[in-house]
Amino acid sequence: MAISSAGIGSGLDVAKIVEQMVTAEKIPLKKLESKAEGIQTQISTYGEIKSLTSKLGDIVSKLTRDSAWNGVNISSSNSTISGSMTGIAAPGTYNIRVTKLAQAQTTVIGGAGAAALAKDETMGASGKLTLKKGVGANEVVKELDISSSDTLTKIAAKVNEAGMGIQASVVTDVDGKERLMLRSKDSGTGNSFTVGIASALTKLGQTNSQLAQNAEVELNGVTVESNSNTFANTIPGMSFSVSEITTNSATMTVKTDTEAIKKSLQEFVDAYNELNDLLSKSTKYTEETKTAGVLQGDSATVSLQNTLRMLTQGISGSTGALTRLSDIGIQMREGGGLTVDSTKLDKGLANVDDLKALFANKANSMGQGGGIAVNFKAVTDKLLAFDGTLNSKTDSLERTLKSNGAEQDKVNKRATTLEERLYKQYSALDGKMSSLNALNSYVSQMVTTWNKSSS
């Protein structure tokens, strides 16, 4: 309210009069503010619906993929044999007996006959040290120049710098004498190597302390080998590792991970229920309290809820053994939510292929036969699209809210203009009243003077 002395001349409580008139002018604000609050609540609710729809969409999207149904658990009857998934592994049983473990080649270089050399003893002559590693087309050859002043430590450095996958180190015995130990960084016969010593390097000799060897197992009676103790390409979709030679066969079992599938289906049910509960709450009218949900009567929300409920009824045009969620114990409860009968679901998990078809089958050219997850994903994608129902509805509400704000601004502007005009008018009235009061006072004085003169 503006600071004013209006009313001094007239004796009126101008501030109170103006306040009452401005308050009357602002009466439409209450309705506009209440409406704006309702619109904002609707926008927030649609934000929640969008978030839960996105969550449901992510979950059903996973259920459309092979990875959701092809997971397996791998167990072994012997702790020295273990397996892990590398792709899509088929369920099955494998009998494995380990006959050999992989070894990396180790070669020792020292004096003649591989005897130890004195600490930091130099070669006394120059020549070539030739390293060959690998087999056939994978063979790599490098020649190292050895000088007369080189020690075993310097030769080890040159071998390591050669990048041959051969690790060189100098070992010292109890007498302080040295030998050069060369070891392949990788096991298996494919990583064996040879060392050629020039004849001029008379101080050097070599011996193999450990030959390269592949790991070898009998897999269901078939002998297979691997450069390492991990068999990565023997069984499609999985690898297995061995750590000990075994006398008897161990059993490795690959089973469908039904617990993971149950968890995914429960996540689907939970996400659906969360969205359904929000939609029900938002559109509900409570007779006892005469209160309506924030989206009660909103056709878009009601249509969305009906669409989602229809999707749970089953798949059209399917010839599979399972066609409805109720076939696997997922049923609709009062209020449109879903419940899970674990016993019936466990029976459904006995045939994962049929269960996968129920959720993940692709629709035909006529749009029929699509699995439940496929159909849900199509709907959620459409709802969440840039021009989809949820964004369109939110945009419409935000435009309405913006228009409401503009109307409030107009009311406030009219009230401010009225206040300013009233104070100007009452200020002008004060001026006139002051003049009239002054004239009245003057006339009264003159009358008094005349009366005295005449008496």
TrEMBL record:
Domain Flagellar hook-associated protein 2 C-terminal residue range list: 212-438
GO cellular component: bacterial-type flagellum filament cap; bacterial-type flagellum hook; extracellular region
GO terms under biological process: bacterial-type flagellum-dependent cell motility; cell adhesion
Domain Flagellar hook-associated protein 2 N-terminal: 10-105
Highest taxon listed in the record's lineage: Bacteria
InterPro entries noted in UniProt: FliD, FliD_C, FliD_N
Keywords: Bacterial flagellum, Cell projection, Cilium, Coiled coil, Flagellum, Secreted
Region forming the signal peptide: none
Compartment(s): Secreted; Bacterial flagellum
Summary of subunit composition and partner proteins: Homopentamer.
Function in brief: Required for morphogenesis and for the elongation of the flagellar filament by facilitating polymerization of the flagellin monomers at the tip of growing filament. Forms a capping structure, which prevents flagellin subunits (transported through the central channel of the flagellum) from leaking out without polymerization at the distal end.
Family: Belongs to the FliD family.
Protein name as it appears in the record: Flagellar hook-associated protein 2
Gene: fliD
